[in-house]
Specification:
two-stranded antiparallel sheet, 2 domains, about 5% strand, about 575 residues
Length: about 575
């Protein structure tokens, strides 16, 4: 037996060297790189030297936004904006304190942006990446409360490995507008809790209210603020101050007009949410909650792996580091717990689905906690490696993935976005063949309708009430009398049947069938067939107009129905 014990001990020594020996090896390697860095590392080291000088972090964020803006521009050369982004702009065209589908912040932001920038794809892509850049800047505001220098860059580099700040961000909508608002609200709440100053308390309440005006899901952020404030060791000092009451009052003042709108409109957004996401049986709601947590874990997998490879054997200090966290980090920890646990509990209690996509704006918290709570600072060998990893992914995405995606969407497997602009322009040309007035209203397939509102030179208004967006109700007669158009993909049977029903109430109409074909780099893609219905305004003086697709005339005096090729 002693011989066997000795043999096993020897084998363990040979196969599993002492952790301290391995740690010394990595430390020596890092020290050697710091003393004599490779030539290609020197620009990265100069950049790290500029963090506390004030230029390096803005340069990092700007470069990130610029390269992913370039990715979006190339990847969607043969594809238009996502329907969510187009809907966001349509929602904001008429100022209101609420909307039957979503709170108003996304619409305000989108429409305000287009008062400065043109209605183009690159303009909205710039909005999306600017929003992501502001989000990263806000995260750095929080990080610098706890760390300095290289660690600030590490937090941002880890977040840049998430899909939230480029792929998710491109769909500027009720979810992505929170990317910037959540960290700003968290920063103000942190400052309010630490200082208990009335100014920071008011700012925390205002940004929390803005988060609610972005999406009602933000109630979980506010609930997490309350949870963190209650369980934090310094809760007595906080609640004896005026800070929580100033925050609550300010939030109610900012939310006041929207609350009034909810009270006078029948709270239609809640009815919409229950209609679309509610009514899930108890067993399935447990699955939804589990999928929510697994989805967040999967999203964090890549930055978590990058941190493990960088921290290596120093991860053994994690329990001690966790226990030694500063009061500010403890507050952020409980906020993070609330943003993860509260949605899962509500999903089960209320019987609703809870996509993990809705929580991506809160994933900056674990990055801050892990990096800022560590008792060590990564050597520059690993910081530079992490920066190279982030930059390498971005370069490969722009040089390889973006052109491949553009080619795939044009030539192999196009989706609806490949035809939005083409269909909108074609419908506008057909409309001008039957009327001297601009197209006033558009309906039909939502994606096509939002696209026509955005891309058509006439910019017609989306005319399906949002509370009836999924019921395919009939347009009002007064709407038809003022002029109206609708468009569907020919393979959308539901839309076709609905369009047939509209013809029964339309005073006179023109029905169209046409194809559109996208092109990329001079090569034609796959065509799509569309159908459209046009009702010209009553009293239009254009008694006879020409069909732009042929030399034949359209004479409305002979029939109330005309079918054009």
């Amino acid at each position: 037996m002693p011989e066997l014990t000795f043999a096993v001990s020897k084998l363990q020594t040979l196969c599993l060297p002492d952790i301290s020996v391995q740690l010394d090896y990595f430390s020596v390697m890092a020290a050697r790189s710091a003393a004599s860095p490779a030539r290609w590392r020197k620009p990265f080291l100069r950049w790290l030297d500029g963090i506390e000088a004030g230029w390096a972090i803005p340069a990092l964020i700007t470069a990130f936004a610029a390269i992913w803006l370039l990715f979006l521009s190339i990847a969607y050369l043969s594809g238009d904006l996502h329907a969510d982004a187009l809907e966001t702009w349509s929602v904001g065209r008429q100022f209101a304190w609420g909307n039957a589908k979503h709170p108003p912040l996304m619409g305000w932001a989108a429409y305000g942006w287009t008062q400065v920038f043109p209605l183009t794809d690159w303009s909205f892509q710039l909005l999306a990446m600017t929003n992501a850049a502001v989000a990263l800047w806000a995260v750095d505001l929080i990080s610098r409360r706890f760390v300095r220098g290289d660690s600030r860059a590490v937090v941002l580099l880890l977040l840049m490995l998430l899909p939230a700040y480029q792929f998710h961000a491109q769909r500027f909508n009720a979810n992505t507008v929170l990317l910037a608002v959540w960290p700003l609200a968290t920063y103000c709440f942190l400052r309010s809790y630490e200082s208990r100053a009335a100014g920071w308390a008011a700012a925390a309440g205002a940004f929390a209210a803005l988060a609610m005006l972005g999406k009602y899901y933000s109630v979980f952020l506010i609930g997490s603020f309350v949870l963190a404030a209650i369980v934090h060791p310094q809760r007595a000092a906080y609640f004896r101050s005026c800070a929580p009451w100033v925050s609550a009052l300010t939030g109610l003042i900012v939310l006041g007009p929207h609350i009034h709108w909810l009270a006078t409109s029948g709270a239609t957004p809640f009815a919409y949410a229950l209609q679309v996401h509610g009514g899930i049986p108890l067993g399935q709601s447990f699955l939804e909650a589990g999928a929510f947590l697994l989805g967040l874990a999967a999203t964090l997998a890549l930055p978590a792996l990058a941190w493990v490879l960088s921290a290596q054997f120093r991860l053994k200090h994690f329990p001690a580091d966790f226990r030694a966290m500063s009061p500010g980090l403890v507050l952020l920890f409980w906020i993070f717990v609330g943003t993860v646990v509260l949605p899962a509990i509500v999903a089960v209690a209320v019987g609703t689905d809870m996509p993990s996509l809705w929580a991506l704006q809160g994933l900056f918290l674990p990055a801050i906690l892990i990096v800022c709570g560590a008792s060590f600072t990564l050597e520059r060998l690993y910081v530079v490696n992490l920066a190279v990893m982030v930059a390498g992914i971005a370069v490969v995405a722009v040089v390889v993935a973006a052109p491949v995606h553009a080619y795939y969407r044009n030539n192999i497997n196009p989706n609806d976005r490949s035809y939005y602009r083409l269909a909108a322009i074609e419908l506008t040309q057909r409309w001008r063949a039957i009327s001297d007035r601009p197209m006033p209203a558009i309906s039909g397939d939502d994606g096509l309708a939002f696209a026509t509102a955005f891309y058509s030179p006439d910019h017609p208004f989306y005319r399906r009430p949002f509370e009836y967006q999924y019921t395919w109700g009939m347009p009002r007669v007064t709407t038809l009398e003022k002029g109206w158009a609708a468009m569907c993909f020919a393979n959308n049977e539901t839309c076709r049947v609905w369009m047939d029903k509209v013809t029964a109430i339309a005073p006179e109409f023109t029905r169209l069938d046409f194809d559109v074909t996208p092109h990329l780099w001079g090569r034609a893609g796959k065509p799509a067939s569309l159908i459209a219905l046009m009702v010209r305004p009553q009293g239009d003086k254009a008694d006879a107009v020409r069909n732009p697709a042929s030399d034949g005339a359209v004479d409305f005096s002979s029939s109330r129905r005309q079918v054009l090729p």
